[in-house]
Specification:
InterPro entries: 4OHPhenylPyrv_dOase_N, DSD, Glyas_Bleomycin-R_OHBP_Dase, Glyas_Fos-R_dOase_dom, IolE/XylAMocC-like, VOC_core, Xyl_isomerase-like_sf, Xyl_isomerase-like_TIM-brl. The protein has 21 helices and 26 strands. By secondary structure, it is of the alpha/beta class. It is elongated. The structure holds 3,4-dihydroxybenzoic acid and magnesium ion.
């Protein structure tokens, strides 16, 4: 954890947050930002003077780091040039009332702008001269869609040519990285000539850069731009001014300001630590796997769920020493059914019905992980425990789901032995019912898929990426019969079949899709399906179908298509079709899987077999699954439409 004592001032542009200007300031301060960029529109629509804004900010302990933007200033033909200088003087008045000394001038986008760096430099030098008389400064930023200036080096050349101490460069990661421009040369600039640094990430999208910037920016770590490379270059220059988040994003405009602000600060703390500055962060955990999942149930749901688990080969393996909590086990998979009254689980049950209320990851060092989570402003959780019972440290995911951290250094098994009466493998005594065969043992939990409310994907990506060091995979679009689902998986870096943590996250704008219905019907986010890893899907599904496991029937059309899509021999194809197994393959390997119908229309299970180095999730088959589940749910079997 290399870190320098220097901690950057952390700032956020008001355009990044929802609400009125005072609400934005209040949220930024409450979460712990040092400063804000006042975006001009937020001031124009505020029913109070700039001096009022200054007083509100001061009262909240917030510095106004910059006033922005000042547009279309430089290199205009003559009558406009004079008017622009007058305009600058009026905005200097505003800045002095606001109590900020820096204004952001973004490169001119007007068709009438003159393509002449010398004119641009002369105009900016004149503006800087006027600013200096009032102890103000001017920063010049290249917009990626500027008419003549759209790269940082062009802006820097103009700043150099103007050669005025009150004029400096502003760099914004988005504009540089969106054009795929090389930021490395920023390292060679004198750091004190960079007046301000704005950070933004974005998902990779193919669209015009203006629309991309105005609607799809997000916080560093939420997108796919190499913000780290940009920041390393900036910091190598010696720049030590504020790091400021400037995010134009339709979802952020609608989200609660404090949630957005918290994500922003988490992102900046992470970015700063990665760059080797600030107090530093404890290393992310090595996640060995999902040790258990806990379901919130009442007595009726417990009985129904335990029957379903029985059909999947799970046995009742233990009972908690002091609570209404039961352990179900199959091979390496532990599922806990919690029907204890007056507990966090029962609260969860009241809100969401039968559902997963906690996940437990096995990590190399739980205490270090908790310290990292705390430094990243996560909410920690401490459950009351009985005498002699193990206290498992936990934190809350952004939706409130508990994530327990089981320390792999301590004997993992002992969390079960300390807290549970464990039953022998086969119940003793004549009255014991003969156990059904379990089929091949499950290797572990392969992945846990979650449905998230629309607009919350970025928040969860940031959480898992920064706290756990999970790697976000590319975005998938899955067609549900009733709308589109977007899916992005976060995977622990060393995940292998039967090991590691994989968390596909799904969102849907439609309320009628599997994801949309889950979120609206169960009041919020949650675990939507759980996939168990097996080394032999064929044997497992064959065995479990005999025990009545409710695997989904797959349309014959699917297998006709499979036969032409992949080079499968007839015997393999016949096996897949007979067991109704879904199939995918890529250059790395193969994937065989089967889904159950959903439990209470809430969540469902999957069994997956990974062969070779296949790392995906069979997303190509999700549409089939969703269509079959929808048909079962609606009772809309084709027979109804055929006479
Ligand atoms: O989209 C814009 O106009 C705009 C304005 C100011 C900025 O700093 C910026 O990065 C973009
Ligand atoms: Mg900017």
């Amino acid at each position: 954890m290399p870190s320098s004592a220097f901690t950057f001032k952390k700032s956020i542009a008001t355009v990044s947050l929802s609400g009125t200007l005072p609400e934005k300031l209040e949220a930024a301060a409450a979460i712990g930002f040092d400063g804000v960029e006042i975006f001009e529109n937020d001031l124009l629509t505020f029913d109070g003077s700039p001096a009022d804004v200054r007083r509100i900010a001061e009262g909240l302990g917030l510095e106004i780091t910059i006033f922005q933007p000042f547009r279309d200033f430089e290199a205009m033909p003559d009558p406009i040039r004079a008017r622009n200088l007058d305009r600058a003087e009026r905005k200097f008045d505003v800045m002095q009332e606001l109590g900020t000394d820096l204004v952001l001038v973004c490169s001119n986008v007007q068709p009438s702008a003159i393509d002449d760096p010398a004119r641009a430099a002369a105009d900016l030098a004149e503006m800087a001269e006027r600013a200096q008389r009032r102890n103000l400064r001017v920063g010049y930023e290249a917009l990626a869609w500027g008419r003549h200036v759209n790269r940082w080096r062009q802006a820097w050349n103009i700043v150099q040519r103007a050669d005025h101490p009150a004029l400096g460069l502003i760099v914004d990661s988005f504009h540089t990285l969106a054009l795929n421009d090389d930021p490395s040369g920023i390292a060679d600039l004198p750091g004190d000539r960079i007046f301000f640094v704005q950070l933004a990430d974005a998902p990779t999208l193919s669209m015009d850069v203006l629309s991309w910037s105005r609607h799809f920016r997000n916080f560093p770590g939420q997108g796919q731009l190499p913000v780290r490379r940009f920041l390393d270059a900036v910091l190598a220059s010696g720049y030590r001014g504020p790091l400021s988040l400037e995010i134009f994003n339709d979802e952020f405009r609608a989200a609660p300001a404090r949630l957005t602000a918290l994500d922003g600060l988490r992102s900046l703390i992470h970015v700063e630590a990665e760059a080797g500055f600030g107090p530093g962060l404890p290393a992310p955990p090595v996640c060995h796997g999902v040790e258990f999942l806990e379901f919130a149930v009442d007595a009726a749901a417990r009985d129904k769920l335990s029957a379903l688990l029985g059909s999947l080969g799970f046995r009742h393996a233990g009972r908690h020493r002091s609570k209404d909590v039961d352990l179900y086990r199959q091979g390496g998979v532990n599922l806990v059914l919690n029907s204890e009254e007056d507990s966090a689980a029962s609260e969860h049950f009241q809100m969401h019905g039968p559902s997963v209320c906690a996940m437990a990851f096995t990590v190399d060092d739980a205490a270090r992980t908790i310290a990292r989570a705390e430094a990243l402003r996560c909410v920690l959780w401490r459950e009351r425990v009985g005498d002699g019972e193990r206290k498992i440290p936990a934190l809350r995911a952004p939706d409130g789901t508990l994530i327990y951290l089981v320390d792999g250094k301590e004997a993992r098994r002992s969390i079960w032995e300390d807290d549970f009466h464990l039953f022998a493998e086969e119940p003793a005594g004549q009255e014991a019912a003969p156990q059904p065969p379990h089929g091949p043992p499950l290797l572990g939990i392969d992945h846990v898929a979650q449905a998230l409310p629309f607009g919350r994907m970025d928040s969860f990506v940031l959480f898992y990426r920064t706290v756990f060091g999970f790697v976000p995979e590319s975005l998938w679009e899955l067609p549900d019969p009733y709308g589109l689902i977007r899916s992005r998986a976060l995977v622990s870096p060393d995940a292998e079949p039967g090991r590691g943590v994989r968390l596909p996250l799904n969102i849907s704008e439609s309320r009628r899709t599997a994801t949309g219905r889950f979120v609206s019907a169960t009041s919020g986010a949650g675990v939507h399906h759980i996939a168990f890893a097996t080394a032999d899907a064929d044997a497992l599904v064959t065995d479990r179908l005999a025990a009545g496991a409710p695997f989904l029937p797959i349309p014959a059309n699917y297998y006709d298509d499979l036969a032409v899509k992949h080079p499968l021999d007839d015997a393999t194809l016949a096996t897949l079709k007979d067991r109704e197994l879904l199939y995918d393959r890529d250059e790395q390997g193969e994937f065989l899987h089967a889904y159950t119908d959903s439990f209470d229309d809430r969540f469902f299970f999957e069994v997956v077999e990974r062969r070779g180095g296949y790392r995906q999730f069979g997303a190509v088959n999700a549409a089939v699954r969703m269509a079959v589940q929808a048909q079962l749910r609606e009772g809309a079997r084709p027979e109804l439409y055929l006479d």
